[in-house]
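Consider a protein example.
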Amino acid sequence: MKAYFLSLGAGLLVGVVYSLLGVRSPAPPVIALLGLAGILLGEQLVPIAKRIFDRKEVVAFVTSDCADHVLGRLPANRKDEA
């Protein structure tokens, strides 16, 4: 249930920002897609920063965990499935 309230809160915050910027909701497709891309990439900044400060491996994390989160699960190669 907590995730629903956080989602609602994030939506309200975005709505306030849209209002301050004078952008109508639903936003035009390009603005909406750029906003979603910003959200996906922004979600990865904190984990990356934590890894940098903890002196942990960053490149492997970005190419595996971040890529999976931002791009979604990519289709498997059919040759690998056989």
In short: The mean pLDDT is 78. The first helix runs from residue 2 to 21. Residues 2-81 form one domain.
